[in-house]
Amino acid sequence: MSFELINSDLDAGSNPGFLVICDHASNALPEGYGTLGLDPSEFSRHIAYDIGAAEVSRRLAEALHCPAVLARYSRLLIDLNRGADDPTLVMKLSDGAIIPANRDVDAFADKAEFMHRLAAFHEPYHAAVAMALERARAAGAVPAILSIHSFTPSWRGVARPWHTGILWDRDDRLPAVLLDGLRAETDLVVGDNEPYTGALKGDCLYRHGTQNGLPHVLIEIRQDLIAEAAGQAEWAARIARLVGEAASAPHMGDIKFYGSQSDPKG
Fold first, then answer.
1. Which of 13, 32, 106 lies closest to 73, judged by CA?
2. Residue 110: inside a domain, yes or no?
């Protein structure tokens, strides 16, 4: 399978009020792809996966006793946090590294391989997320989606000041509580849609959160803070506490459509 499920059995008492997802959990590749023509050392870098994010996601799912869906393969194979028509779905160049086996993999050149990766890896992951949300709704919950990512301490030689970033679009139900809670911890520098924006057309949260009217947030954590087990446990506990407080925030139990900044104006 192209994904890993955690606490998926709601009948066993798993909490349907939250769903943790991790789009860039793994640096592995499926059989037959070798190293995509890259030096194996490249797979220890952020271009292959979000360092520390998988472990934080697992610990967070454990703390909340909620389901989680984690990617099983590297983002260099196909990026699960991109829509099917996004030109960066299969990356050909990432932070200075050319990916030889991806050179022609797109909807115009090697369309057969492009469609294979969509069908074999991208769509099963999103189907698993959709199924987890459907099961939560069937159990009477309006599940809040927590997407866990990590970012590099510096980018192109410039240090990034943030310890964490809260990425969101127009739905502020979860982001507002998390931003307030994190900023109350005065030793943290917290980014509001930094170092990236949460308004990305067709991304994972657009597809499963925005379009379904479900509360959702993407949480970015700086990689040096969660590279080791102690930091992973600390951040999972912190997020679990804050999202637990958010459960009683206004409209968290509602299906509410906010739309997206990336939607066509009209």
1. 32
2. yes
Answer whether residue 258 is part of any domain: no
Q: Is residue 69 part of a domain?
A: yes
Burial category of 195 from C-beta neighbours within 10 Å (exposed 0-12, middle 13-18, buried 19 and up): middle
Q: List the domain range (segments joined by +) for residue 199.
A: 3-246
Q: What is the pLDDT of residue 109?
A: 93
Q: What is the domain-level CATH number for residue 31?
A: 3.40.630.40
Which stretches does DSSP call E strand in the chain? 3-6, 18-22, 68-71, 93-94, 97-98, 144-151, 154-155, 158-159, 164-167, 190-192, 216-222
Quote the tokens at residue 163: 């310890």
Cα-Cα-Cα-Cα torsion 103, 106, 108, 110, nearest 10 degrees, comes to 60
* Mean pLDDT of all residues belonging to the chain: 95
Instruction: Look at residues 75, 82, 76, 71 and name the one whose alpha carbon lies nearest to residue 5.
Output: 71
Q: Is the pLDDT of residue 266 over 50?
A: no
Total of domains in the chain: 1
Query: Measured on CA atoms in the order 166, 99, 43, 78, is the torsion positive or negative?
Result: positive
Does residue 259 fall inside a structural domain? no
> The pTM is what?
0.96
